[in-house]
Amino acid sequence: MRLTGVGRRYGLGGPWILRDLDLEIPAGSLLRVEGANGSGKSTLLRLLAGIDAPSAGRITGRPRTAYVPERFPAALPMTAGAYLTRLGRIHGLGRAAAVRGAQEWLERFGAGAYAGTPLSELSKGTSQKVAVAQGLMGTPGLLVLDEAWTGLDRTSRGVLDEAVRERVTGGTRVVFVDHDPGRLAGAVDVALRVEGGGIFTLPAPSRDRWQAPGPPSALNARCPRTPDGPRCARTVIVAEPPPGAVLPPHLPGTAELLGEGAVELTVAGPQADDALRTLLNARPPWHIRSVTEAPHP
């Protein structure tokens, strides 16, 4: 699935919400979308799901898609079981399989007793379970989740986490937005940040391997040279990344992964301020545990 030069605006003369987006989403990938309120996250998800058409550019290779919206229309005139069965049929299931799948997903979310309850009579939490279950009916090639965890109890959030992992393992593309920065941490393949009408793509972090920001020789940059070679103090910064973050690019020095996900960054003394500024200005910012100095041999 590919987005090429995609843009979206509302109205012929309206401002561009998103513009010039280029993105490829391979099968079996998990993408997290983040950004400030009003940045265009939901617009991007609606474009991916085919709910909205791009105002510019094109989207190709979209597979069968399931979409869980931010707001579920719970006033539809049907029961929870009938609604899920209908969605199962739309996703290509036979009648018997759709009925069976509807009941199985309701039970998996602890809502099996509500299969015969009209949607308009469900609590907000149970309505959200139905909204999520409809997205998991069948085997879509793309699953789009817009804050699908919001309103679910802790057990149901865990069920959805597990279901997402199952779908990705089975080859489904999953794209999601969630307020919890730690949601599915360690499983995300790519994190996308929506900002200023564009998207910025960062690879997801690996907990057992961090890419060093530069060669070891960068440690000696801007150090006074002596007959024995560069010589200056070094600064050791121990920092803790926010959930789902990666090491910011263009950092000086060398990085080493410590226990509990912390990173030890060693830089030449004159570069310490630049490194700290980069970590603290990251979005979200890193937590600085300690800054110490040691002589550079």
From TrEMBL:
The keyword Transport belongs to this UniProt entry's keyword annotation: yes
One example GO MF annotation: ATP binding
Region of interest called Disordered, as start-end residue ranges on this chain: 205-226
Entries under PROSITE patterns matching the protein: ABC_TRANSPORTER_2
Name of a matching Pfam family: ABC_tran
Key words of the record: ATP-binding, Nucleotide-binding, Transport
InterPro entries reported for this sequence: AAA+_ATPase, ABC_transporter-like_ATP-bd, ABC_Transporter_VariousFunc, P-loop_NTPase
Keyword ATP-binding annotated: yes
Record domain ABC transporter: where: 1-221
Superkingdom: Bacteria
Annotated PANTHER family: ABC TRANSPORTER ATP-BINDING PROTEIN ALBC-RELATED
Protein known as: ATP-binding cassette domain-containing protein
